[in-house]
């Protein structure tokens, strides 16, 4: 039954993602939390894995959520679900895309959707952040390590270092802090 | 002829799928090189059109682009070949990685690696957020959507799809009102 539910959730995610992979994040977050498939921290780990493995982020994260939730049938269901809306909508439009592109209503809708996606990703980022940092005991070791790594990663990102390198450095810093027991 | 093109599309998009890291935008240089410069299936201008469409239609950019290029080059079968090609490397790699991670995720060293990685991911999401914000118009209407949408999601936990539909509707209403006034674009 779970693969069916995964298929339906990812069908909705595929149909309501506008833009690149990270625009999916708020939708995926809502689906996995409401169904109890993953915790927020697991979701962050999944983002890291999807970002640093070959393949577009959108497909990676769908397959990953699917396989971890319900094995290979789950992976198939989630991936097929996320692909199908794109596939059929694009096929329908590919004959008349010039008209679609210049259509007033489409442009109007996009004018509303773009800021909405910004708002949703911001909200997803904050709620994920609340789970990476534990606010009940703000000065605990994990928080201090995370804050230090956040600063380093932020600096690397500002310097336009590749995302995979940023994940690699963050992982190394995490391992180091674990090893020396900071 | 068409079968040959489909086979080539499958090959090209397997390659694109296997060598894309990150979001759909990371695919675009690869698509340009393979499809426009390499195979000369489409012109660079057509690729730009495709990206613009892929951005304004539902669905992740990566899948939209693959389906669109495949469809333009060889119809339905081409769309199928390109989409299957772009998905397959991801799918297999993730199955393998997931199998490995399941075995090692309880190790202390992996746990501390992920503790570090989580902070790094926050930065990556933040950077995606900044670039999304950069692509958004900075006018009263945009902020008039952004702030209520943020409150609806973060404070009131209103359904994400519902928020998206309302915001799209607001954009449509606005464009109709502007037209009614006979104003600019």
Could you explain how this protein is built, in words?
The complex is a heterodimer of chains A (182) and B (185). Chain A is mainly alpha-helical. Chain A has helices at residues 2-15, 25-34, 40-52, 57-93, 97-102, 104-132, 141-158, 163-179; strands at 18-19, 55-56. Chain A folds into two domains: 2-132, no CATH class; 137-182. The radius of gyration of chain A is 19 Å and the shape is globular. Chain B is mainly α and 185 residues long. Chain B has three domains: 2-104; 105-135; 136-185.
Summarize this, please?
The complex is a heterodimer of chains A (182) and B (185). With 182 residues, chain A is mainly alpha-helical. Chain A has helices at 2-15, 25-34, 40-52, 57-93, 97-102, 104-132, 141-158, 163-179, and strands at residues 18-19, 55-56.
Question: Which terms would index this structure?
Answer:
heterodimer; A: 182 residues; mainly alpha; 2 strands; globular; B: 185 residues; 3 domains
| Share of residues in helices of chain A | over 70%
Low-confidence stretches of chain B: none
End-to-end Cα distance of chain A, whole Å, is 45 Å
Fraction of helical residues of chain B: over 70%
Write the topology of this structure.
The complex is a heterodimer of chains A (182) and B (185).
Chain A lengths: L1 H14 L2 E2 L5 H10 L5 H13 L2 E2 H37 L3 H6 L1 H29 L8 H18 L4 H17 L3
Chain B lengths: L1 H18 L1 E2 L5 H11 L5 H13 L2 E2 H44 L3 H27 L5 H15 L5 H21 L5
